[in-house]
């Protein structure tokens, strides 16, 4: 009997324990993580490795942007396209903005509580409420209230890449800051696109405590030669004794400036020498440097390892420990104000251990004793932590070490997750949950308020128990890094992304009803934030996909979201019309599909949201009735319910589907699909359309674009919501003509790249996306590019003039996606590093200038006109009157009337059949007054 009672008590305790864990987990996920993520993501991590995901990710983006003629990303493309943008802006400054009939008012929408990849972070030594931080594609930001709010401080026209940050902490110099640019990557053939997107452009300096920044002239890159030592800055330190500036320049070495950045010289390394570099300082002026074993162009370097300078960079001593690994790629350095003679070095060998984990080494070096201790065996290796039992640096992508300023034994190391030691890793801690303090978490998957992929750590100078971290999710803050933690009580963190808008969005979604405030988009490593923005206020966001968010659709009864490899989910709404985070999220992609891209498009039929179209490799699938999938469907591997592979749409194996779109009206159910070839076997891109796509099993119609570039990648198809036969096709590669338009369903295509094409001196931008927005005054055509947003209302083949948009709000950001909504003319932009922006066209200033003159009235009939029109004007006194027709660039295209005119009412006929369709202005001028009327020619 006693044994039964004891067993019963034990059983109750066990049940209580698991109930407690469940409640904690459920509460966490209710704050914004999807239910499927608890069940699915760990399974996916085991099924799809990080390297597999990375390879697919890199392959897709390389194919999207490579120059087909050379099969490379042009090495200096980022700087060349920036120079090209300057020319477009300068050429349009004359009368273009004044003569176009509209202006688009742009607003930054958010989200305000989701950040993005952050490698630069520092606190003001004089005031820890002042924090500076920078996103790798999001610019330099400043907070003056301890992270409660943030303001962008870098120039919208400058490089948006921020990768390193340092303050001159000497007394009287604390208003001086420096930031470096350019995020370094692995330099593989496939990885070229990221290497050049994240290319930096020098060192920036502030002398007003981060309020404004100026590019140091001698550090900027020559856009033609692409020569600069400051393209990929990994770290900057300012010597606290001399104020000398030291820059760790990946690919080259260590540079020093003795005059505040006016001039730099190499003190270690040189041109094209060391692949990875790092630099650190001690408070008494010692400078420590790391130079990688491998050179920029391959091969091993002779003079490499760890060095220290005791004379501010004049001479250097090699202090590489005898126990240092024979092979090493990257290392990061950690010093502390608690002991100027202590250095910690975390090194990645570039190898894997027998269990598949990264081979990392940790050394503690005594700078004053020529001695060191190998502490590698005490690095985290805790099986109870599961997939994060040891440090994962993802091939050097995320790698950090930091030492508490007041305790040389409190050491933090990080990769995808953060781990700590209270004794400088002098002993191995078997209790993994006490070691793990951030990143991933075995129970919660993600550590609460502390995003995975750690890059930079900053301590509060005045209270070293307070610590900030920059990671792929932006910024996190711990009010007391000394607090204990275990499996049931994680270390408390605060999300500090309060308007720190550096999120890298790949897509954006709008609902199609006027006034609807919902926005959603897929992001790099931050899921798919869903939030509301009413043009003034931004609500808190919730993640409706997890992982790397991809495509989405905001429907009437459900929301649809996807992550990598086309895993697509149907999310129900709750009674308030918001995503139901506590419901089952149905995995609705076709279970038997294969070959999906990393970012795999899908489409919901706008006339029947129960019909979904889904490409997978060279095959194509259609779901005829999504409503038949039960709301409680819980199989997280997809479904076979109502999915049919359309065999008539199967492509040759050298092709795969890369874009699709479905018409809304005139006609409905008109499906357009695009197929692109693999870069290893380039073919001409294919465009097909399928009529009555909701039910048809007929063969598609081949409407491929004649003379389209071989090997081009079709990234976007945009259909006019009012005219299913008007389509824009976007091919995203560099150095091609990649923008095409048809008004007859593909019978005839016109190239419309116009002034976005390269000029022979600089490449034009890559074009990523397009949208057609019908308005009461005609269509606005919008395109997203690698340097921002452009628009026009008048297509004229290769003479089309595209206008740069949002120069004072968005700047030259990389834009991946554009969506627009006819109901209220709303436009949404997905930017790679600055979040989501919305815009609204405003015609009030330009359309129908109805200034009432006492003595002159002008009327046009008919308007729009086809071939003939009447100009009717009345004047009350003798006057010299001149009337002409002007295009939107302000050029006179037809003179109509010019003479001294008696007071009366006059009718003047005019033929316009010689003018192409588009917008024009009829202008009547007297000696003292002018009247302008908008004229639309539509034949």
Using the CA coordinates, give the radius of gyration: 30 Å
Ends: how far apart? Answer: 97 Å
Q: Can you count the beta strands? A: 65
Q: Order of strands across the widest beta sheet? A: 1-58-57-56
The name of the CATH topology of the domain at 509-842 is Methylamine Dehydrogenase, Chain H
CATH class of the domain at 509-842: Mainly Beta
Mean pLDDT: 90
- Architecture per CATH nomenclature, i.e. the level-2 architecture of the domain at 509-842: 7 Propeller
Helix content: under 10%
What's the helix count? 7
Would you identify the CATH H-level superfamily of the domain at 509-842? YVTN repeat-like/Quinoprotein amine dehydrogenase
Q: Label the overall shape.
A: globular
Class of secondary structure makeup: mainly beta
Beta content comes to 35-45%
Low-confidence stretches: 1-47, 94-98, 847-853
Largest sheet: 4 strands, antiparallel
Report on the architecture of this protein.
With 939 residues, the chain is mainly beta. Among the domains are: 509-842, Methylamine Dehydrogenase, Chain H, CATH 2.130.10.10; 856-937, Sandwich (Immunoglobulin-like), CATH 2.60.40.1930. It has 7 helices and 65 strands. The chain has a 4-stranded antiparallel sheet, with no helix packed on it. It has a 4-stranded antiparallel sheet with strand order 2-3-4-5, with no helix packed on it. A 4-stranded antiparallel sheet has the order 6-7-8-9, with no helix packed on it.
